[in-house]
Each structure stands twice: as C-alpha cells, then as structure tokens.
Amino acid sequence: MKNYAILFVCFLWTILTINAQQVDFEEYDLDNGMHVILHQDNNAPVVTVSTYYHVGSKDENPERTGFAHFFEHLLFEGTKNIPKGEWDKILTSNGGTGNATTNQDRTYYYEVFPSNQLALGLWMESERLRHPIIGQVGVDTQNEVVKEEKRMRVDNAPYGQWVSQVFKNLFKEHPYKWSVIGSMEHLDAATLEEFQAFNKKYYMPNNCTLVVAGDINIKEAKILIQNYFGGIPRGEEFERINIKEEPITETIEATFEDPNIQIPAIFSVYRTPSSKERDAYVLNMISSVLTSGKSSRLYKKLVDEKKKALEVAAFNYSLEDYGAYIVLALPLGDISLDDLLAEMDEEILKIQTELISERDYQKLQNKFENQFVNSNSSVQGIASSLSDYYVINGDTNLINTEIEIYRSITREEIREVAKKYLNPNQRLELKYLPKSKEIASNEK
C-alpha cells in the first residue's frame, strides 16, 4: 500500500510539473510579413515587448564585419520622433528597463514595462523599425562606443579572446569564423551608405519577430500591434547564408598568447551540428555528465581528487548552422596542458565505450527535468525563448515540448553520439597561453 502511495505522489507531481510549465501562446503574421507571438500571463503587472531580427554576424560582408553588433548600439541613437539621447530617458521615466544582445545568428531588443505602458513599448519598437536615423553623427558616436567595448571586454579582459580564437580556428569557410564584435578597421572603413544599406536589408518587418508577453489582453494587444506595425512596408526578400564546412579529419593545433592572463588554458573543441539537430541535445547531456556540478566526472577527477585543475568545463555552444563542443581546463601549479588534455580524453573515451550507469542516467534525467521546471521563470525569459524557438528552431511550441526530447534520449544514444563527434582527429586543440615576457619586452 505504501509503494502505491509513493507512486501516486510521483505521478501527481509529474502532472503538476507539466501543467505548471505549460506556456500558452498565440502566433500569427501581419500582412507585411512580421511574425507576432503573444503570451498572456496576468500574475504580475508587467509586460515585455521584444523584437527579434534574424540577422547576426554571419550575415555580414567579410570585409565589413561587426555590422550586426554595431546596429545593436546604433538603433538606440534615436528616431524621427525620439531625439538623440532620449531613448533611455523615456524608458526609465515610465518605469521600464531594456537592453539588446547580438550573436552570430540574431539581434534581440526588449523592454520590460508596467503593463499599463504596453502601448509605449510597442510605439518605441515600431519607431526603431519605422523611423531609425542612420546618420553620420550616430555612426561616429557608436563607433567610439564599440571600440571602448572591445577594449574593455576583449582586448584587455583576461581570457577575453578565447571565443574568437576558437571560432577562428574551427571554421575555415563559414562566417562563424569571425567574431561578433568584428573588426574595428572594417567599421572605420565603412561608409554611411553601407550602414544605411544594411539597415534597409535586414531591419524590415518580414525579418522580424515581435513577442509581447505578460499582463496583457490578447484582443487589445492585437489592435495595438496592427496600429503600430501593420503599416510598415515589407522589405525585399534576400537569400540566407548557406555555406558548408568540410568535415575536420585531422587535429587542428593552435596557440594564442593573451597578455592579460597568468594561468594558461587548454581548449579541446569539436565542430558539432546545428542546435536544431537531435544530436545537439544529446551533446548537452554529455556535457552534464562531464562537468555539471561537483560530482561530475571531470570536476571530481581533475579538481577534487587529482588536484590537477583549477577549473574544468564542457558545454555545447549551439548555433543555427553549426555548433562547437568545448572542453576546457586551467591547470593547477606545474601541471602541463598536455597532461590535462590526456585526462579529459580519458573520460570522453569512457563515455564512448561504456554505457553510463542506470543510476547516473536517472540523475541526468532528473537534472534536466529540474532545469525544465525552473526555466522560463520570468516573463522576459519566456519572450526570449519564444523568439528563439520560432526563428532558430522553426517550432515555437518547443518551449513546451523540448523536455520530451531529453526524456527520449537513451544511454546507448549518449555513447553513440560521443563516438560520432568527440574524436581527436575531429577537433581543434587550442593552447591559450600567457604572453611571453620576451615578446612583451620586444613590443615595448
């Protein structure tokens, strides 16, 4: 009788968890091609308005890198009806916050307002789309802003260049090979007409997904959206980037010297499939086995037991076209990078040749269930997820069903995917080193 009671409680918890995580939404297209996603949640009097443009650093001219990130800044400069410097003042004086981010695949803008300011949020984003001012003054201003950001976050930050070095060496043809922040020389050389052409091509309603999430009335929100966005003309269609990389068949060896660090790092990086592929989900689970938490294999072995590493991490950096599976470690004391690499390879080989135990498999499933329960805990997070799932994955309802993919992954599948991708002849080995005193002295 006791066992039946326990089973019933577990069953009830599963049902409650699924219901609690269900994100209801409605989606449709405006006549100009803008995709709209609405999520109503009246539990708190806040609303998120976000615009998600399907343009990232991969869409740039190889001689004009950094444009997508530059526009993340430039489109805060002002519009026909929002004077220069007034954007943030309007935002904060009405109780709002906002920001924007850019990556290789997309650019994302959002505002979070008290729900009685929904119309204001929609008006501001429609202004960004309809009436941006792409002028020389704004370009010159943001050029300096971006240069300072690069100095602070990349050039002078410890380990600030590891991402760019990984992608530079992992990709030979695909535009993932250049950094999101791009080249300052390219931005300096660009003409105003080139910036205006980039805006006209990519910042159009038919390349934009609008998400409104939070304390809204669906019917009223639709009327406002039509009023603010419906009359914006559709942009011209364009071809998406479709560049294929040849498989890696021999180990790529690379080194980079960073003047901002004292402790080196070893990166073992494998090119992996798009975030849309099932194998990407399996690789996420492999990452959890290797380095998620202090009981994970690599952390327990290299940090706790053998004390060879200060830190170790493994994760699948998934993107729309490809991914990068990254395993890295920082040595403790005089431990060599080659020694760390051999230790990391030993644990990967175990995953390739041995099934993880039933107990570890259940712990893994519990961990992903818990992540699912805790995901989308804010309205802003839900808005971001809805955008990503629609644009990058082509299935908005993954916000509700993605956990089913993880539940269906088997121990055998974990072993086979590790065999398929995580092999020494299919990877980049990047030694990320402190800059030698001799080179630094010569440069002075």
Describe the secondary structure blueprint for this structure.
Elements: H1 2-21, E1 26-29, E2 35-40, E3 46-53, H2 67-74, H3 87-93, E4 97-102, E5 107-114, H4 118-130, H5 136-155, H6 162-170, H7 184-189, H8 192-202, E6 208-214, H9 218-229, E7 252-258, E8 265-273, H10 278-291, H11 297-305, E9 309-318, E10 322-331, H12 337-353, H13 358-374, H14 379-391, H15 398-408, H16 411-421, E11 427-434, H17 437-443
Parallel strand pairs: 2-6, 7-11
Antiparallel strand pairs: 1-2, 3-5, 3-6, 4-5, 8-10, 8-11, 9-10
What does this structure look like?
With 444 residues, this protein is of the alpha+beta class. It folds into 2 domains: 10-229, Cytochrome Bc1 Complex, Chain A, domain 1 (2-Layer Sandwich), CATH 3.30.830; 252-443, Metalloenzyme, LuxS/M16 peptidase-like (Cytochrome Bc1 Complex, Chain A, domain 1), CATH 3.30.830. The protein is built from 17 helices and 11 strands. Strands 1-2-6-3-5-4 form a 6-stranded mixed beta sheet, sandwiched between helices. Strands 7-11-8-10-9 form a 5-stranded mixed beta sheet, sandwiched between helices. Helix 10 (278-291) packs across helix 16 (411-421) and helix 12 crosses helix 16. The chain is globular and about 60 Å long.
